[in-house]
Amino acid sequence: MKVRQNGRGSNDAPHGCGNGRLSGRFLAKLVPYGEASDGMTVVPARSNEWVRPVTSHEPASAIIEIDRVSQVFQTSARRDHVALSDISLTIEEGAFVSILGPSGCGKSTLLYIVGGFVSPTNGTARMKGQAITGPGPDRGPVFQEFALFPWKTVLGNVMYGPRQQGVRAAEAEAQSRTLIEMVGLKGFENFYPKELSGGMKQRVALARTLAYHPEVLLMDEPFGALDAHTRTRLQNDLLNIWERDRKTVLFVTHSVDEAVFLSDKVVMMSKSPGRIREVIDIDLPRPRRRTELLLDPRYQKYVVDIERMFDDGDEAGPAL
Amino acid sequence: MARFLSPNIVLGIAPIALIIALWQGLVSFGFAPAVLLPPPGFVFGRLLQQLLTWTFQQEIAATLVRLFAGFAIAVVLGVSIGIAAAASPAINAVVRPIVRVLAPLPKVALYPALLLLLGFGHGSKITLVAADALFPILLSTYYGASTVEQKLIWSAMAAGTPRREILFKVVLPAAMPSILTGCRIGLVISCIVVFLAEMITSTDGLGHALVTAARTFQAVDMFVPLITISLLGLILNALLGALRSYLLRGFPEA
Amino acid sequence: MMPPATLTRRAAPVLACIGLLAVWQVASLALKNDSFPTAIEAIRAIPDILGDKESLINILASLRRMAIGFGVAVLVSIPLGLLMGRSRGVAAFFNPLLMVIYPVPKAALMPIIMLWLGVGDITKTLVIFLGVSLPVIYHSFEGAKAVEEKMLWSGAAMGLSPAQRLLRIVLPAALPEILTGCRTGLVLALITMITSEMIARQSGAGNILFNALDMGQYDTVFAMIIIVGAMGICLDAIFERVRARLVRWSEPQFDMPLSFS
Question: Model-level pTM?
Answer without folding.
Answer: 0.81
